[in-house]
Design brief:
The chain is an all-beta fold. Helices cover 0% and strands 53% of the residues. It has no helices and 17 strands. The strands form four sheets. Strands 5, 6, 7, 8 and 9 form a five-stranded antiparallel β-sheet that branches. A four-stranded antiparallel β-sheet has the order 1-2-3-4, with no helix packed on it. It starts with a strand and ends in a 19-residue tail after the last strand.
Amino acid sequence: NNFILTTPDSLLWYSYGDSIYSWSYRTHSTTAILAGAGAITNGFALSGGRLYISNAIGIGPLARDRIDYEYRYPVPDINSNVPFSMIELSPGELAIAGCNGLFRFDTRNKKLDTLLRIPDACIRALWKYKDFLFIGTYGRGIFLWQNDSIRPIPLDRNGYLRYAHCFIPDD
């Protein structure tokens, strides 16, 4: 789906449908883990040495070949809760982007906070650079987050930056 992540233990993580897969670069074998009915897209991020999963059901670390959901959405919604991007903002804090907005999940107290909601626009891309978080939307441009402050960046003359799908460093 939208995510792949390679972890230091030489595993490539990805998902398809309601399942999570890991492919080992060492053994060239694949392992499947059921994420749960309705998960559809699973996001991955490392935090505190654990692999965290986010999907339309909720958020939690992978433990013993299952997701140990630490937060479950009040109403699982495949149209709104599906993550498009997920990264670690700082130790123990995950940023999760989707059509419902940009959220911060604290892995220590298991709380989910809203950082940004943009009417009629999905947040599709996140990229951390130094102490900035670049936030790409589908239809509303790019935003920058720094020190708990979020600001839009100006659009280009032709409006191409209105739809930001990813960020790539370029010297």
